[in-house]
Amino acid sequence: MTLWQRLRAMLGLEPRGQERQMPLYPPGYPRPRVEPTPPPLFPSYPTPDILGPIQEQREPINYLNLHLPDGSTVPIIPLLRLPLLTPGTWTNNSPSAGYVSWAGCQIAHEGQIYTITDGNTNLKYIWWDKSASPTTFQVSDTKPTLNPLEDLLIAYNNAGTAEFAFLSNLIQAGIIICQQLDVLSANMGLLTAGEIRLGTGTPGVDFTGIRIYKSGSTYRVGGYLNNTLRAYLDSDGALRAGGGDVILDENGIYMFCLASGAYLSRDAIKWMLDSLIVGEIYSLYTGTSPNRNPALYLRAVGEGTGTAAIVMRAGTREVGLIEVNERLYLTGLDLLIASAGRRIKFGDSLTEIWKDASGNLTLKDAVAGTKTEMQLASISQSAEASAILTLTITKQDVPGCSLSLGAGTWLVFGNFAFRGNNQGSYAIGYLDVGGVEQTRQAQWRPAASADAAAMANQLWRITLSATTTVKLQAKKSVDVGVFTAQNIYTNITALRTAD
Q1: Are 267 and 230 in the same domain?
Q2: What is the pLDDT of residues 468-484, one digit of tens each?
Q3: Quick one: how many helices (H) and strands (E) in the chain?
Q4: How confident is the model at residue 397 (pLDDT cuts 50, 70, 90)?
Q5: Is residue 27 part of a domain?
């Protein structure tokens, strides 16, 4: 039976007793059973001229019932002027991988049968467009816009497998409304609008779950808890959490700094031990723009009576340990304060230590409104004798025992290593301050008229208004015997003290 005869038999145009068959269907699909029923099933629809110019039907066109495999019956209006396909033969991955080929296909439309030229393609969409060419299939990777009265989507090339659009698993529609989709293909195609929502509650009220949607001009995947946006991924490539206070993007991790006194747990990086927070980093600031004062906090938390510590390492070597029980341990490194004038403070700045631009180290202790300061000289404020000095009855400078001291109050120590051999005379040590002899001296007399040696010491407290040279001098009282100041153990040391 020809396609034309099948169409006429299906529509009741052939004499009774003539075999009625539905058009060919893709392999593996059940064939519906069609039975004629008396009209009118749809009285409001006029009987269309389904075969175009053909007017020779000898009896009324019967309406049909389509009996589906599940036992249900669907009434059908007489076929409209739609293209009908005789599918012919289709071969997957032919003539090569990714291609589909067809042969022996025909299209019936408005009383005409068009034989389709055999062909093949590796493009996705295959359709018939009467206005473009009634004897060839059109192909493209772009989904075509079809005229349902003159065009017909034939198949979809799924990487070399022909998926038939006619009575197949493919659905083409502008809108699909249903209660649920039990089975979705792995390839969902392109979704350009709408929303995917997994969760409970109502958006804008009490929704908890995941939403994939468009927010303004930005596409977003958001996680909600009781309608509060907790974390989300935007189409700008940034991952946000903490209500947007934490951002991870191509430039790194950002955590927004909050005002002083407004610490929020969500804005801190935390380390956990089971359910216990054992450490965190966060930042606060004081002041207002453009003169804000940010501060970075590193906090360790002990469990129960345990001790929390912050340990610093350089490579594999531990270089520092900070205990929270009011003790500071530094292991393996020096404490360096690089800028002059910066201070180490204790308590409410009552006790401070700092070094000024001149290299002076100052210790200040202020209690109940009173202040006591002591500046400590550096090691350069000490000098030793560079040679042996033979004493005469005239004062002489001890070689090498000279210092240049800045303004302030100083304690000066003079140590003289005297040697002599006559009891009739004694050695005397002096301190000269800017050419002025100080009132106290260091003295030594031998116990007998024989060679002997001893140390003589003196301490002077001096106050200077400007930088001044201070030095040790020595002589013998009477010009008898031989007296010397030895270079070993003869020295001068100055220590700055409170003004």
Answers
A1: no
A2: 999 999 999 999 999 99
A3: 1, 42
A4: very high
A5: yes
Higher pLDDT, 355 or 195: 195
Structure-token pair, residue 44: 């409001």
Q: What percent of the chain has pLDDT over 90?
A: 32
Tokens 């002059």 -> residue: 340
Residues 266 and 218 in one domain: no
Is pLDDT at 265 greater than 90 in this prediction? no
Query: Considering the domain boundaries, does residue 292 fall inside one?
Result: yes
428 belongs to a structural domain: yes
Residues 245 and 290 occupy one common structural domain: no
Domain that holds residue 23: 1-80
Residues 17 and 73 in one domain: yes
Taking alpha carbons only, the member of 440, 457, 453 closest to residue 482 is 453
- Give residue 341's identity as a one-letter amino acid code: G
> How far apart, in whole angstroms, are the C-alpha atoms of residue 284 and residue 297?
8
Q: Cβ distance 403 to 470 under 8 Å?
A: yes
Of 246, 278, 300, at which residue does a domain stop?
Answer: 300
Q: Residues 132, 232: one domain?
A: no
In a domain, residue 177? The reply is no
Tell me, yes or no, whether 353 and 402 share the same domain: no
Residue 239 has pLDDT above 60, yes or no: yes
Question: Can you tell me the distance from the alpha carbon of 215 to that of 236, in angstroms, rounded to the nearest whole number?
Answer: 12
This prediction has a pTM of: 0.34
Q: Does the CA dihedral 395-396-402-405 come out positive or negative?
A: positive
Q: Are residues 360 and 423 in the same domain?
A: no
Assess contact for 272 and 278: CB atoms under 8 A.
Answer: yes
Say how many Å lie between the first and final Cα of the chain, rounded: 127
Task: Please list, in sequence order, all residues whose beta carbon lies within 8 angstroms of the beta carbon of residue 452, skipping any fewer than 6 positions away.
Answer: 419, 420, 421, 446
Nearest to 416 by CA among 473, 455, 447: 455
Report the number of distinct structural domains present in the chain: 6
Over residues 123-140, mean pLDDT? 94
Q: Which is more confident, 314 or 465?
A: 465
Residues in the chain, total: 499
